[in-house]
Task: structure prediction
Amino acid sequence: MTMEATLLCKFLLLDLLVNFSIGNAKPYIEPQSIPSIRFLNWKEHESHCGGQHQSPINIESDTAIIANYPEFIFHKYDLIFPGRLENNGHTVELKIEEQGMGEELPFITGGGLTDRYNFVQLHFHWGQHLFGSEHRIDGEQYPAELHIVHYNSKYGSFNGALSHDDGLAVLGILIELQPRDNIAFRHLEQFDNIIDPSIANSDALRYSVPLSDLLPDQTDSFFRYNGSLTSGKCNEGVIWSIFDTPIAISERQLAKFRLLRDENGNELIENVRLTQLLHNRVVMYCPYSSPSSPLLPFSDTEFSPMEFPLN
Ligand SMILES: *[C@@H]1O[C@H](CO)[C@@H](O)[C@H](O)[C@H]1NC(C)=O
Result:
């Protein structure tokens, strides 16, 4: 049997088991379920996808260990750069267009990161109905998730950083729904020219959006763990920061993502990898602490009042 056929059979079996277990013996697969086969079976044909430090995970907040990381510093996140949207057949990605030599792109420091991490791209995960985030908090899945990907500047490039334990830092931002549009997404949702990537897969953004417009209101509290990329070769060495404050878009805006297609013309209605086992990892939680009251009830030896800005 071909790989495709093997995967399809496994999927059928899974589907049957699920249907039987809920008392519904209808032996039928919805045609649109087929594209998600690859998300179920990545580990069999991609090199790192069967590793022990994989993402996404379900974060169990009551077992997370409290940590006092200094706050993130988002450098050049408030500036506007020319952007380009790309439908890579798996997600829609925003990159900053190549700048002249010496132009500094956005980067992050702080947040417990020991190095400077440069922005590479951001992309989205979404699904059908309300189940589109990759990370879950206490089992709760959100309608979508934004990943802002950075590489450790000391390795010179994204590719150079890929093989290192501290190579990448990804900010994970959960997306919920609100009745009104998110203005930042009105500029981003320019998907009409890249719906079918076999015709055209990239388009320059007409209105650039500063990255800060995509951050949640509260970036001081977040979960931290060591994981992997959730697509491609699932490379490990990703320092994840999952903010516990979501951002929000409208149902109309979420629906735009589901119009995108892959190279074979299949609808990209779901690009969510299943949650992975934690194995021997720990999840840290950095709670919000008001900068105006830096006297925390912790006697952590790593805590230093110098880490808190005086403003
Ligand atoms: C991630 O891995 C690094 C290197 O092994 C380690 O120092 C760090 O404590 C880990 N972070 C978490 C949150 O477990």
User: Anything to note?
Assistant: The chain has one domain: 33-286.
